[in-house]
Amino acid sequence: MTNLALLALVLLVVLPVGLPIFRLNMVAKYLTYAFVALGLVMLWGKAGVLSLGQGVFFGLGGYCMAMFLKLEASDPVSTKIQSTPGIPDFMDWNQITHLPAFWVPFKSLPFSLFAVIAVPTLAAFVVGLAMFKRRVGGVYFAVITQALALILSLAIDSRQGYTGGRNGITDLKTLWGWDIRTHHAQYILYFVTCVLLLAAILFSQWLLSGKTGKMLLAMRDREDRVRFSGYDVSMFKVATFCFAAALSGLGGALFVLQVGFISPSLVGIVPSIEMVIFCAVGGRTSLYGAIYGTLLVNTGKSLFSENFPQLWLFAMGGLFIAVVVLFPDGLAGLFELGRKKLKPWMEKTRNKPSLPVGLPGTVAKGDQP
Amino acid sequence: MSSNTDFLLAIEDLTVSFDGFRAVDSLNLYIEKDELRVIIGPNGAGKTTVLDMICGRTRPTSGSIKFKNRELIGMAEHRIVHEGVGRKFQTPSIYENLTVFENLEVSYPKGHTVFGCVAFKRTAEVVDRIHKIAEEISLQDYLEVEGAFLSHGQKQWLEIGMLLMQEPELVMLDEPVAGMSQPERELTAALIKRICKGRCIIVIEHDMEFVSRIAHKVTVLHLGKILAEGSMEEIRNNPKVIDVYLGH
Amino acid sequence: MIFAYSPAELWSIFVMQGFAGLSLFSVLLLMALGLAIIFGQMGVVNLAHGEFMALGAYTVYLCSTLVANHAPKLQPYYFVIAIIVAFLVAALAGLLVEWSLIRFLYKRPLDTLLATWGLSLIMQQSFRSIFGAREVTPTLPEWLMGSFKPTPNIDIPINGVFVMGLTLLLAFGVWLFMYRSRIGLQMRATVQNRTMSGAVGINTKLVDRFTFSLGCGIAGVAGAAFTTIGSTGPDSGSRYIVDTFLVVVFGGASSLLGTIASAFGIAQGQSILEFFLEGTAGKVAILLTIVIVLMIRPKGLFPGKIRTA
Question: Which of A369, B10, C71, C263 fits a disulfide with B4 by CB distance 3.0 to 4.6 angstroms?
Answer without folding.
Answer: B10
